[in-house]
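sorry for the late reply, my laptop died twice this morning and i had to redo everyting from scratch. anyway the thing you sent over, i finally got around to it. pasting the sequence first so we're on the same page, its 288 residues, then the predicted structure underneath. double check i copied it right bc i was rushing
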Amino acid sequence: MRYPRLLDDTTLTALLREDAPYGDLTTRSLGIGERSGRMRFYARGPRTVACAEEATRMIELAGAVHVHQLKASGDIAEDGELLLEAHGPAGALHLAWKTAQTLMEYAAGIATATRAIVEAAASGCGSGQAAPVVACTRKNLPGTRAIAQAAVTAGGGTMHRLGLSETLLVFPEHRAFLAASEQRQRLEAVIRNAPEKRVVVEVPGYEEALEAAAAGAEVIQLEKSPPEAVAALAEALQARDFRGLIAVAGGVNSENAGAYAQAGAAVLVTSAPYFAAPRDVSVQIEPA
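ok and here's the structure:
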């Protein structure tokens, strides 16, 4: 599967300029910028590839004559596999080198960690049971949302929400501003005012979850609840003919994703991939 490039030329150019606002002083001072060269990116350790398309385009924007991308985002690369190869002036290769390398390293870390959770969740499903969706939060480093989305998608996950403007997620921090007597009425109003949106309500426990379901919430998001609590809620909601979904958030990772899937969670909400270690990329640059 091919993923669309999420970072446009303006963004990629801005990243290059951040690293070299006035050009590459070393390459220019050595007088080697116009000499023909070749640059190769290799996987140092296995990973899920991410932002390969962005890195390829970045190298082209830096002035490379030809860039051959051997691995696409979402592909699995083993240790030592060639990811991409670029030909062009040494000045262009050196200009793009570190920024493109770092982009692929950090994105691969997120993608690889996401895939681990996706696979763990699938392993906890019984016969005929659909695997939960692994949805990453908007708790990425500010300014890197597009990179986060590209990496999460490459790892087989999805974004929980890209921003406050697109989804209805009622937190306890919202309900704190409402009197107990008006909470159900306000939630029903939210559902009426945005009928095309699925309403998610995050709750700290069992009783609050039942109240939210009775008020019309379509997704009950349990915060920091163990798998056994999720299983108990799933059973209670099924008895009440609840047609919505159960999501779990807080502390979800590859070690417990299978247990949450087995307990009946349909959505696993996590920030864990954003804190995964980058996956190293080895770079070779030589005359051609």
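The longest strand covers residues 36-43.
thats about all i looked at so far, will dig more tmrw
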